[in-house]
Amino acid sequence: MPRSTMADADPTGVWLHETGPDGEPGSVALRAIAVDDVDQITAACQDAALQRYIPVPRPYHRADAEDYVARSIALWPTGRKHVFSVVPAARPDLLLGVVSLTVAGRCGNAAYWLTPEARGRGAASAALRMVSGWAFEHRDLAVILLEIHATNEASKRVAAAAGFHHSGDIEVATDDGPRQALLYVRLASDQPLLPRPH
Ligand SMILES: CC(C)(COP(=O)(O)OP(=O)(O)OC[C@H]1O[C@@H](n2cnc3c(N)ncnc32)[C@H](O)[C@@H]1OP(=O)(O)O)[C@@H](O)C(=O)NCCC(=O)NCCS
Description:
Helix content is 28%, strand content 30%. It is α+β, with helices and mostly antiparallel strands. It has one domain: Aminopeptidase, CATH 3.40.630.30. Helix 2 (38-44) crosses helix 4 (62-75) and helix 5 packs across helix 6. The structure holds coenzyme A.
């Protein structure tokens, strides 16, 4: 598996990728978020769709990305939150997006976004499948939850492709006040997903 200097310097050593039915590794991988991602995160967080569905500061400045990355790196060893960068397996320095997992007990809350250029190729579904499989196996989680805005059709499809089921509707607190969200759930005891072709 090709890896960059940055990925080699990653103290977590985490490198996740899927294996297809042919045994070949998938084209998308996950590594821990890194300081070198700051500029790419800053650029991605200017996107209107991301700002609509992800609770990021608006306007979004480079200092926001610096703060987010620093907090994410500090939180990883506590086990309370794991923030992964979604990258091409062959280009670990190129950010396709971010998938995060916040952990309390045996329950995790996942969230994800892709850069506009990386959308439409199944990268988010692959990232969500990978982080879920890792969390069930290595963090012993019993359940992972997603809160999805009712109008976010792409995210609903991503969730379904990663083995999540719409469980019900909830009200969530946001900086802009309470809003309705769809609760998607995947249990550790759910049937394992079949390998997917890439
Ligand atoms: C949500 C997000 C990660 C999905 O990215 P993606 O992997 O590129 O998703 P795609 O564009 O491939 O769409 C996934 C599926 O939804 C479908 N889809 C996309 N937009 C759709 C729409 N408006 N209506 C219906 N279906 C739609 C696609 O056709 C695709 O279908 P498939 O699974 O049959 O191939 C990306 O749009 C994003 O980063 N959005 C902003 C942040 C965000 O919303 N995060 C999720 C918060 S819960």
